[in-house]
Structures are given as structure tokens and as C-alpha cells.
Amino acid sequence: MAFHTSLIIFLTELRKSIRNMAVALFLCTGVIFLLSPQLLHFVQAHLADKLYFFSVSGPFLAHVKLALFAAVYLLMPWVTTVLWRAMGKPFNVAGGELFFFIFFTCLLFYAGTLFCYYVTLPFGIQFLLGFSSEELKPVISVGRFVNFTTIFILAFGLIFELPIFMVFLAKVGVFTRRFYEKNRRYALLLIAILAALLTPTPDVVNMSLMGGPLYLLYEAGIFILMVLQIK
């Protein structure tokens, strides 16, 4: 099937659910906003001490952003289902295969976000705040804190999807398992670059906390292709 035809089918399928997802996201954000003080306290207790704001609207906007992030986080299974149905339509991916992609996409996303929240972010924030002294005290803006944590958590959730997209691209004939096996060193280089760009600190420890699992996920993608006998 030609690329432009596949793209049209994908966009047509996606358009059917866009409005419902937008409404659900808006309503979910509104409900979570009412609970955002408790949610911010939960995140702050785990990752930071005191937070400050430097504008009148600062706390309000921080709570809105946090509520929006939490809404996206909770609605991810639905979003994943919509996206995979749309992507699977041009390539006749349905039934059990579709369920496989949806289930493992959600599983890997949540695994990545939890790994970031409980492992990478605490190490990164501790490293960055380690430069404080008697003369240099950290004053952390609540808005910057929310931006920092939510962006990195989402980023880790998305990059942990690597194996499932490797399987999908091999299944639809874009790449082969042999291609992944032959290009391990290039994959390692790209993973190192991604780890340097996306981790909160440039030190080797934090880069390894991201790059190590990501390379293991790359190998896991190859292993899954072997188990599924996809060449």
C-alpha cells in the first residue's frame, strides 16, 4: 500500500476519536485540578523540599499543568487504543495482534514513567542540588519544577516504547530483524545521544540510568522478533 494511502487511512481513523479524546481530556483535567494540591504535595514530598512562585499566576498555572499531565497519564490506555487502531487499519493489524500492541505499549509506557519517577529523577535532582552551598541556596520555582518533572516522566514513558515499535516496523516490512541485529553499534550511539539529551544531568551515572535500560529494550525488541518468528 502506498505511503500516502496509508496516511490517509490513518488520519481518517484517528479523526473519528479526536473530538471525544479532547472532551475527555478537558473534563479529566478539570476534575484532577480539584485534587492538584494533594497531587503536587505527593510529588514534592518525593522530589523536592520547598517550592516558590515569582508571579501571581504561577501557582495556578502550575496546578493546571500538573492536572493536564495527570489527565494524559490516566487516559493513556485509551489514547494508545485509538492510535493503534488507526495505525493498524492500513496494515490489517487487528484482533489479537492489535491487543498485543495496545497492551505492551501501555505496559512499557507506565514502566518507563515509574522508572523515571523513582530512579532517574531523584538521582538527577540530588546531583543538581548538590552544587548548593552556604552562599548559593536553591530557590525552586513551582512552575519550573512541574515542567521539569512532567516533561522527563513523559519522555521516559515514550522512549520505553522502543521494543513495541521495533516489532511493528518489522511486521509491516519497514525494517527486518536482520537490520536491527546488524546495526547494534549505531543503535548504541543513538541511545547514548538520546541519554545525553534527555537525562536531567550530563553525568555518566544518570546517562547510564537511561541509556542502559534503553539498550536492553533494544535487545528485547530483537528477542521478541525471534520469539514471534518475524524476520
Output the keywords.
8 helices; mainly alpha; 2 domains; two-stranded parallel sheet; 231 residues
Short précis:
This protein has 231 residues and is mainly α. 80% of the residues lie in helices and 2% in strands.
Q: What does it look like?
A:
This protein has helices at residues 3-47, 58-88, 95-129, 142-159, 162-171, 177-182, 184-198, 204-227, and strands at 51-52, 140-141. It folds into two domains: 1-126 and 136-160, no CATH class; 162-231, no CATH class. It has 231 residues and is mainly α. The protein is built from eight helices and two strands, in the order αβααβααααα.
Largest sheet: 2 strands, parallel
Strand content: under 5%
| Rounded radius of gyration (Å) | 20 Å
Average residue-wise pLDDT = 86
Parts with pLDDT < 50 across at least 5 consecutive residues: none
Number of helices: 8
